[in-house]
Amino acid sequence: MALGTATVAYELRFDAGRICLDLLATTHPEERFDSVEVLGAWIVGAGLVPSGTPLTHVDPSWLVGFRELRGHIGQLVRSGLAPTALRPSYDIALARVNELARVAPPAPRAVRGEDGALVRELVGPPGCEELLGAIARDAVELLTDPVARAGLRQCEGDNCPIVYVDSSRGRRRRWCSSEVCGNRERVARHRRRAALARV
Ligand SMILES: [Zn+2]
User: Fold this and answer.
1) How far is the CA of 77 from the centre of ligand 1 (A)?
2) Span 113-149, pLDDT tens digits
3) If you measure from the C-alpha of residue 135 to the centroid of ligand 1, how many angstroms do you get, rounded to a whole number?
4) Whole domain around residue 36: which residue ranges?
5) Looking at the domain assignment, is residue 1 inside a domain?
6) Fewer CB atoms < 10 Å away: N or C end of the chain?
7) DSSP category for residue 120
């Protein structure tokens, strides 16, 4: 699998503030995990592995695992945002995330780089379960941290499902991204004003 300039075209986003929330964002605006190349780019972009880590062993079964974990985390996070009667599937999702979190993330090590400075790399090629473990642990930490949990927000943009942690001062962040949904809102507001002015 070659990661190159094509990676940029995927427009993957990593601005939700947590790896487990960046994972949820991969369904928007369409399914991103439909090829191992994109999944590999996401794994690197999310910081799950140091850049340059060989991911030639990623196969389509990984897509299934990542999507499954994403579904479970999505259920747990969204239940927290809009508390309703918890459905039985909530407990199933919780049990599954806890189970995946038992696997330790890939072990890192520091090695001397070409210029003598230490660089981080993994001890061996990361396994799918190890990476799912790292994301599941992030979800467990987020969902059990009252401060972080209180900062969970869903973007106010029209039909935007992205959930982020608002760590801004005064907690006034309203959008997943001011360039994307924030800008769309500003344009819509401008159009409404222009329309009113014509009446
Ligand atoms: Zn948004």
Assistant:
1) 16
2) 999 999 999 999 999 999 999 999 999 999 999 999 9
3) 22
4) 9-198
5) no
6) C
7) E
